[in-house]
Write a structure and sequence with these properties.
Elements (H helix, E strand, L loop, with lengths): L4 E7 L7 E7 L15 E4 L12 E11 L6 E10 L22 E11 L32 H13 L4 E6 L5 E9 L1 H22 L2 E3 L14 E6 L1 H5 L3 H9 L5 H6 L23 E3 L6 E3 L1 H4 L7 E3 L8 H22 L1
Parallel strand pairs: 1-5, 11-12
Antiparallel strand pairs: 1-2, 3-4, 4-5, 6-8, 6-9, 6-10, 7-8, 10-13, 12-13
Helix pairs in contact: 1-2, 2-7, 4-7
């Protein structure tokens, strides 16, 4: 077997971070995909909003390696970005996450997205018009009810072949809108897998001449927006819980509502209107099985002695998963202690 191909992946410095990639051949023919044996690399940060031209070199530090589902003897290399002097780059949001506590957190992201044609319309929307109103499209089957299922299934197959924690897919409420769920035991693993799953989705759309937009509300009017509901749990919530504890914990999120909104994605004010299964961006709320709340207490939790997980429904589809898990973990640290005092 020849030397392996390595496709490096990182997030750039734009307000809504784009995924960037470049590839090289590993110098050692015995390379087997270990992070420790994956070399650092560099790139021109002046072309990605991460450096000025007079000092443009940025460093790619490999942090996780996945098998490349499209090629033999090839790997996907997820990286953090560093300055050339070794400092974490300001856009390196992964570096914010607390390494001492991230392992006990489990996250499940519900990544919604909309497939768009080159004319800027969701796939299935007629030119200059609209399909029939929402209702028949969610989890639907059949022509004119779903679009681009072949692409969606190809994406899921690729995620599974790459050993990502993508656990399910479904057509969403708006025609041309889809969702995949990505789960990880450990905040870093969950967020890493989501970034690589997004990368594979974008890669596959190249062959279909479609655009997978993460814009939370690309079509105005009586159409659902796209979110990234973030389900989370940690040791105490899974093992002990209790109704009084969970309700006090949710209440402990209230003082930090704006801090969450600030890092939950761009354009979220167009989505969080209080309609279309969302809470208002200006108000915090929680409730059991309430999809119109900021935080939903799922049926699983209430029927398992109030132990399990919670769903934060505020993050937008274009949210940075590293910022989301960092903010949730920091809020939990404070709210957990206050909730223990209340029960």
């Amino acid at each position: 077997m020849g030397n392996a191909r390595l496709d490096y992946i990182w997030l750039d410095g734009y307000e809504i971070a784009n995924i960037r990639t470049k590839a090289q051949i590993h110098p050692d023919s015995s390379y087997n995909g270990s992070v420790e044996d994956t070399p650092k690399w560099g790139f021109d940060g002046s072309s990605t909003q991460q450096a000025e031209g007079h000092d443009s070199d940025c460093i790619l530090q490999p942090v996780r390696v996945y098998p490349n589902p499209f090629r033999q003897n090839a790997y996907l290399v997820l990286c953090e970005v560093f300055h050339r002097d070794g400092r974490p780059h300001e856009t390196n949001t992964r570096n914010l996450i607390d390494r001492d506590s991230e392992a006990e957190f489990w996250f499940g992201f519900e990544q919604e997205y909309i497939l768009m044609t080159s004319n800027g319309r969701p796939v299935g929307f007629p030119d200059g018009g609209f399909p029939e109103p929402q209702g028949p499209y969610y989890c639907a089957v059949g022509a004119h009810r779903v679009e681009a299922r072949e692409l969606v299934d190809e994406h899921w197959d690729a995620c599974l072949a790459a050993d990502l924690g993508v656990t399910g897919i479904n057509a969403e409420v708006m025609l041309g809108q889809w969702e995949f769920q990505c789960f990880g035991k450990g905040a870093l693993r969950a967020a890493d897998d989501l970034i690589v799953a997004r990368f594979l989705l974008q890669l596959i759309t190249e062959r279909y001449d479609l655009i997978a937009t993460l814009d939370p509300k690309p079509i105005s009017g009586d159409w659902n927006g796209s979110g990234m509901h973030s389900n989370f749990s940690y040791d105490y919530l899974r093992d002990v819980g209790g109704q009084d504890y969970i309700e006090a914990l949710c209440e402990g999120f209230r003082p930090f509502h704006q801090d969450h909104i600030d890092v939950y994605g761009a354009g979220n004010e167009r989505r969080l209107t209080g309609s279309h299964e969302t809470a208002s961006i200006d108000q915090f709320s929680f409730g059991a099985s309430n999809r119109g709340a900021s935080i939903r207490i799922p049926l699983y939790t209430t029927t398992h002695d109030w132990k399990g997980y919670l769903e934060d429904r505020r993050p937008a589809s274009d949210g940075d998963p590293y910022l989301i898990v960092d903010r949730i973990m920091r809020t939990v640290k404070v709210a957990h202690e206050e909730a223990l005092k209340a029960v």
